[in-house]
Amino acid sequence: MYFLMICHHNAGPQIDTLRDGLRPEHRDWVASGGNGLAVVLTGSAIWDETGAGIGNFGILQAESEAKARAFAEGDPFAKGGVVRDITLTRLADSFRAERIDPLTKT
């Protein structure tokens, strides 16, 4: 199954520093697919109109919504207090994942 994951980040004067500090762990988590919970096909930061980071998104492939959620909630950004909320939306079974070079290396 495929899912669109949208993570909105907390705001505040220290959030950029916290996010920057957790970024290496976050990238490792993405590269490992949360130790096999999901495959991250693509993703990126989400910015507001001023160019400030307000979140991140990903397109995930996972066996179930439960595994996709476990991936999202296990991300160091989520566990470390950067993420305010997570939305998962299932994508159509006809989603053309073969057009994407995955970020997770299996």
Shape: globular
End-to-end Cα distance, whole Å, is 17 Å
The helix tally amounts to 3
Average predicted local confidence, pLDDT? 94
Order of helices and strands: EHEEHHE
What structural class results from the helix and strand content? alpha+beta
Strand content: 25-35%
Question: Into which percent range does the helicity of residues fall?
Answer: 25-40%
Could you describe the largest sheet, including whether it forms a barrel? 4 strands, antiparallel
Number of strands: 4
- Radius of gyration (Å): 13 Å
Poorly predicted regions: none
Spatial ordering of strands, largest sheet: 2-3-1-4
Describe the protein.
By secondary structure, the chain is an alpha+beta fold. The chain has three helices and four strands; from the N terminus they run βαββααβ. The chain has helices spanning 15-36, 65-74, 76-79, and strands at residues 2-9, 39-47, 53-61, 83-90. A four-stranded antiparallel sheet has the order 2-3-1-4. A hairpin with a 5-residue loop joins strand 2 and strand 3. The longest helix is centred in the first third of the chain and has 22 residues, at 15-36. The model has no long low-confidence stretch (mean pLDDT 94).
